[in-house]
Amino acid sequence: MTVLVEPDTRAVRPPRRLGPWTIALAFGLAATVLSAAFSWVPSLWGDEAATLLSAKRPVGSLLGMLLHVDAVHGLYYLGMHGWIRLAGESAFALRLPSALAVGATVAAVTLIAGRRGGRRAALVAGVVACVLPRLTYAGEEARSYAFTAAAAAWLTLLLLWLIDGGGRRLTPGARRLAWVLYGAGMALTSYLFLYTATLIVAHGVALLASRASRATVRCWALASGAAVLTLVPLAVLAYLERNQIAYLGETPDDPSIWYYFLWFGMPWVAIAAWALIGVALWPVWRAWRLRTSHPVAPGPRPVSTVLIASTWLFLPTGVLLLVNAAFPLYTGRYSTFAAPAAALLVAEGILVLGRRLGRDPRRVVGATVTATLVFVALCAPVYVLQRGPYAKNDSDWAEVSAAMAANAAPGDAVVFDQSAKPSQRPRLAMRTYPAGFAGLKDPTLRVPYYRNDGWADRQYSVAQADHRGRFDGIERVWLIELDIEGVEDTWGLRDLHTLGFAETGRHIETHRSDIIELTR
Questions:
Q1: Which 8-state DSSP code applies to residue 444?
Q2: How many CB atoms within 10 Å of residue 138?
Q3: pTM score, whole prediction
Q4: E strands along 233-309, which residues?
Q5: pLDDT along the chain (520 residues), means of 10
Q6: Residue 139 in contact with residue 159, Cβ under 8 Å?
């Protein structure tokens, strides 16, 4: 007997496509791992020393310090104060929060790109943001800049959701709560770093360009105005502490860093990135020219990725540069919060280029993937350079600490060059990598950092320390000098000779420091 089996006519389910939140989570994790990888290799540098020493203070001492210096970083220091008690004070532990913040930044970038461009735009933007030099650098630095990028990205995403009508699906009370969240987020972001408040300018222009409803504009204005009002105390403190960044007017950064390499690390990446940004902006410019010759129907317009990214990239930094022309207050890293916008525009340029080069869908995909991989290849050498041992401002403090551990003995004294600018002083090697200085005497220490109004130690000169008997009983001294190419630096050497110390001929050279042994 033959049994007939009916064929299964049920439709085969197509494979599920990656959802936007799945893409965001995947790229957020990838960016965190990429930023955290080898972040322990570069020596900590001056700004990170300020973070560590500020975070190590008791809270009362920290709050007192913020009334004199670094008020604009106060919220970040308070957060790091709690973090180092959980994770420790190693370079990796200090930098890990920034890597997590970059992961959050990249996740938001994929969601912003996917709003209009779909899955392909989200994937390309995620790849670009993961390798963008400004973000990979911020992700391995114990400063607040990575957090400002993350906060700016998520606040922008929230604003776009409210503009696009997401808020209309909420009850009036929930919608008001969303705007309160936006205003509170803007205030907190600005307390992380004051200059991030200029993001309000970009958001306002994007709102006006989108012809948003009066109700939306009114809600945004109230939320932004409230955020600005909360910043008045911080702005007053920042003005009173303005001498802290007076050096920006005396020794300004190379302008090329501001205008060309700001978010891109090296010239070859900058050239490619600005070219792709130009490609992204070209269709928008053409469309704008057509609108000027053909009337456009009134009413709200959707906020495109290019619109929000271009206002975000150019306007805040433009405002800072204009103010900087009169009152020097700016250096390139301060615009890290605009780095997500750079990633969005570069990604949009890659997508436009792919559509131009490909004539059918398959070729479009191939051209897009190729352009993305080329950009990744251009960024790869920058990533490698960022993970070198001296990548942070040429700092070699880890190497200095290791040299002292290998050569000095308990009971020896160490004297530090005081002629360098505060962020480069060799004394910070002892504060950032203390293991190599264990058991050594510090005769020139006047007031330790945690009892100071400033973030660093105060020191005596060698002569002043000798008058106080600080060198009594000391038979061997290690003098650590900052070695600046082309400049002979012998700070403190003559005073030590006067005290009866003579060089033994033992001279240890590290990447940027000279360690000189002297005995009675």
A1: T
A2: 28
A3: 0.92
A4: none
A5: 52 65 98 98 97 97 95 97 97 98 98 94 98 97 98 97 76 89 97 96 94 90 97 95 76 50 88 96 75 55 90 95 86 93 98 88 93 98 97 96 97 94 93 97 96 93 95 96 73 92 94 95
A6: no
